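Risk register update: the risk of archive-format incompatibility is retired. Evidence:
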Amino acid sequence: MITVDWETYVQLLALVQNSIIAAAVLGILGGLIGVFVMQRDMAFAVHGISELSFAGAAAALLLGLNVVAGSLVGSLAAAALIGLLGARARDRNSIIGVLMPFGLGLGILFLALYPGRSGNKFGLLTGQIISVDIPQLGLLITISVLVLLVLIVVWRPLTFDSLDPEVAHARGVPGRPLSFIFMVLLGLAVAVSVQVIGALLVLALLVTPAAAALRVSSSPVLVPVLSMVFGFVSAVGGILLAIGGSLPISPYITTISFAIYVVCRIVGSRRLSATSRRTLVAT
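Archived output:
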């Protein structure tokens, strides 16, 4: 719901330009890494890492330290544990199931002990519009670029290992090291995303855009491109709507992301039905 006039909206827009840049970067990063999350069936892992990221951020908030740094520590610890101990899907899911309540419980404990403003507590869980300063933006962009560069380097073997791990292993692709590298990259992506969307709703940037793209295409080129576009539109569109309203940022981002997914699912279903009809006619 828009609660400000156009002139005020433009003024607010200028005040949160760093946040908009951050959202754009995170939307692109989340869309790209989300493709591998879907291919490797690790949506549950994103949520597990986000809980430890939340715990780390809450601990940093309590101690008066850098919240982004605390979020990074929590995310990387969770990613390392899952990557080292969860080689098989069953082991991975059980580890994530143990880490999630532990991380959430720690985070809630730290927030309960925090004597500061309640808005800071709420923001860690659901996201908030903040005036991102230049150092914070620089750190976020640096981490995002690092993740993107490493993804580009390991793109081909990681794609091979994600789509057909048994054949990839037979061809000499180092599946376990690749899996650990990907978990670290995912931990970094989750940590920086938590600052915009919050720990509880980070899936909207790291899973939903890729899930939507996979509904309308199977092209190894088009899917990542669509996923990045969907992530960008969701993140930036959410901020542009939220700065004129009175609600937290996360409902806007999640609503846009979900709407894109629903449209892509409808389009994909219609394309599948049309293909099936053409196949029946041909036979």
